What does this fold into?
Amino acid sequence: MTERTITTPEMSEAVEAYAATLGDGVAEYVEVAPTDGAIEDQPFYNVILAGETPVFGWLVWELTGYWLEAQRHAVIERDGKLIDITPPLDGEERILFVRDSGWSFDYLDPKPLRKAKRHLLTDDADVVKWAKLADDVDAFKWRHTKFRGEKSELVIPEGKDMRRMERLQRDYNAAARVALAK
It folds into this structure.
């Protein structure tokens, strides 16, 4: 098995239970239909740039057999049907989405909140270690990402921070190899 995070292919009990902890608590599949000029991984700006009203929520992925992952996201609603207009990172034709009517994106905040939330599907010690390292890598990258409107850039200065990032990435890769080898 290779490491690949995908839109979960089925609405399992684990997916439904995890979705119940997010936003409005109900997961639904949403068709992906990117608009012209839409930017990958920029759902909040894509919706506004398209002149649409955003429906805020959580995009849910699965690293099959290991963990579920949720990230803040936005889609649109047309004729009562949700549509994701942001180009998918993996060519997906549909996503799993959980509405969050109690949250909205602050377009004036220069650093939007899109960090992933992980829910482990196993208690295997190697997977737990791998997920912790994934969280550490995400947190490090988050601290070193500069946001300017719809653009973001990872900026890691040479020296101590660069060595820390290299060490984190090396440890993450080693943990992934161990967990995936099982």
